[in-house]
Amino acid sequence: MRRTLRIYRRSLGAHLRAVLEYEADFWILVVAGLLFQVLNLIFLSAVFSHVPALNGWSFPEAVLLAGTYGFINGLGPLFFEGTWRLAGKINHGELDYPLTRPAPVLVQVVSAGIGMHGIGDLIGGGAMIGWGLANSDIYWSPLRIGGALVLLAGSATILLSLIVLGNAASFWVGGNHPVFAMTLIRTGDMAKYPLSIYGVAVRAAFTVLVPYAFISFFPASWLLGKESAWIGLLTPVVAVYCVYLARLVFRRGLRRYDSAGH
Amino acid sequence: MSLVEARGLTKIFRRPEKDPGLRGSLKHLVQRRFKEFRAVDGIDLSIEAGESVAYVGPNGAGKSTTIKLLTGILVPTAGTVRVAGAEPHTDRMVNARNIGVLFGQRTQLWWDLPVRESLGLLRDMYDLSPAFYKQRLERLDDVLGLADLLPVVARKLSLGQRMRADLAAALLHAPKIVYLDEPTIGLDISVKDRVRQFLRELREDGTTLMLTTHDLGDIEDVCERIVIIDEGRKIFDGPLAQMKDRFARVRRMHLQLAEPTPAEKLAERLPDVEVVAGASPTEVTVTFDRFTHTAGQVIAAVLDVVEVGELHLDEPAIEDVVRKVYAGELLR
């Protein structure tokens, strides 16, 4: 495990150094990520200029929710960007070499790139979380701070697992672009608004079918003491399940891998 | 036990069977039909440690698929493989430490990274000690001229430079067995020579080599044993010299005659033998099957007609043999 982590870190580090060679590119991407979060904020404030609250969620609380979602979404490009290239790799038979190296293929795939717009998401999302927390009515204790951090880690794990899961579908779907993964992850964007505004079907699907709601809604509900707050505490359990599922699907997929040519 | 042991190795690919055009594609969505394609069909292969084997066959014969089965990239449909005691596709990690792989058509270098970073990542994956890594780099630099390439980003390398860097990447961990899939493809003569020289040195160091190639120079320069496959089946496996004996039936003798003699006159004395007039009236070329005629018989027959000044015999070229195999002539 330690060895795997070291390989992951070194690979990511090498790509980071490569990206930093292009300074202009770096700044453009960071600003782009930041702008995306600002757009989210503008949209939310437009909504809240007409209504004082959204199904019991105040403006700062909604900002906290959207900020959490944005922050966690920034982790994907920063730490798992390589995953998005899996479809192309399968299509072109580029998993041949990773399969002949003594390191887990998943680690080699996941660390094969880094997306700097993730930094913008982290900064923007982080700022929104900070402002949301400062302006919400939260009862703080050391236990709640610890709990919030555990849930945040769980949320991040869920999203990263979904990214792997969606992209691993390329082993079956084929094609050069991760269409399935794109759809899967972008659908989750609905989870940056309070889930209670959606109908029963969406709520059920986002909780049970694909647990988007555990990426931000349920953890935030727990922290803010909303209705059914206890569900948020299930986040780590859901995270473990997602990791298991993602690994299983990736492994099954890898056995199907046919390379290219013959 | 041999270093590489394959028994009844088979790989069947499933290909969608579609009628042409959009209509065919739509029909396939509803009514899925697949056609099976046997890329590798029951191949038995044993390679001893230290051997250098050329794996040869026409395009689509199943060469690359065999390499992918032996390296653990593909899971065989049937049959067994053992490489240094490990089953490649199940003991992938164990196998990976024993082998080095190069696919000449593709690079294993990280596209956006300088060569140095790629080699550094491989060092981490193979757990090479700093001292060992340094020593290997120096050794590889000696033979491949690596030093100039280290700071260059992989995508900026020329094909020849890329191949040198890729060879270094494949051999960094001093693997027991090296699989090379077309290691000289697209290279110019001077780089080709350098790569072959390097492969010979590797062989002399005791590394086991298996290479697929269309370049017959690679085979004669590097390999002692040749395995020919076609349509997924092995059709010859033995020493290079034996292959020439077995398949190079046709020999060619060039004769310098004492006086001008028409080819037809000689042909009368040599039934079943092709006699062609040369550039001048005193030159002829005789082509005969060495299983039906000996060189002595041919010379004797010619001497009955005319004195012979000089003669020389063409050695059977491996190129001719392999070309015939490719053309399907030897299978009939």
UniProtKB/TrEMBL annotation, chain A:
Any Pfam family hit: ABC2_membrane_6
Q: Which domain of life is it from?
A: Bacteria
Transmembrane feature ranges:
26-51, 63-84, 105-133, 145-174, 195-218, 230-250
Q: Enumerate the UniProt keywords alphabetically.
A: Membrane, Transmembrane, Transmembrane helix
Has UniProt tagged this entry with the keyword S-adenosyl-L-methionine? no
The family database entries (InterPro entries) matched by this protein are listed as: ABC-2_transporter-like
PANTHER family membership: INTEGRAL MEMBRANE TRANSPORT PROTEIN (PTHR36833:SF1), SLR0610 PROTEIN-RELATED (PTHR36833)
Name the UniProt record assigns to this protein: Multidrug ABC transporter permease
Originating organism: Catellatospora methionotrophica
